[in-house]
Amino acid sequence: MEKKWYNFIISVDQPPEGSSEEKATSESRKAPGAPASAAQTVAEIASAAAMNPTFTTPVSNPTSFDEIYHAAEIVDPSHGYTILKVADMLQSEYIRSLAPTVKRSSILLALEAAGVKIQGVIEDAVRRDRALDTYEHVQEKALHELEAHKLEENRQVQAELDRIAAEHQAQIQKNNDEIAKEKERFYGWRLKKQQEEQKIHDAVSYFVTENPITTGGPPSEPPAPPKPKGT
User: Fold this and answer.
1) Which of these, 6, 38, 61, 86, has the minimum number of CB atoms within 10 Å of its CB?
2) DSSP per residue over 142-200, as a string?
3) CA 88, CA 96: separation in Å to the nearest integer?
4) Model's pTM, two decimal places?
5) What is the pLDDT of residues 101-139, one digit of tens each?
């Protein structure tokens, strides 16, 4: 993937629009053997560093980019001018407020003074970028695998919950059916009991002034002993 800041470093100053220099440059681009554009230069540098990075050691702290670079065997050059150093230079209080063309010229001047080619800095940038992209894919793959595993685990747990819930629901229904059956038996028996009590009540009524036999629901207290008539 092409990064805009590659072009910021690589691109050259453009002549004013409509100038004779611009026209000459335009014509030269059309001619065979014309110099490569900034975009072409970036593509060539990226192609030169086309090999995907290999992580030789595990990354224990994904938030540490230095650890990621180390795991991808990206070693800082002896001169110390990595793309990260250049990025810091661009944010320096001395040049960060300058125009882009002046920033670019300042960086190129500093690199030239140190005997560093800009192509090496861009290659360093490409390697770091690809290391980050590769590690992103590694993490994304791990995330998808974890998600798939946990979703399957959730499915199994839900299936077990559904099975247990169905068993308990069946037990609840069975209990309710037993209660309903017992109520039906009891209320049927109560009706016959009341009929029996009525028959006893009617028979006793001939011999007592106050009938002690209940014919309704269950008595709240034991019935008083019968009182014979005439006493």
Assistant:
1) 61
2) HHHHHHHHHHHHHHHHHHHHHHHHHHHHHHHHHHHHHHHHHHHHHHHHHHHHHHHHHHH
3) 10
4) 0.56
5) 999 999 999 999 999 999 999 999 999 999 999 999 999
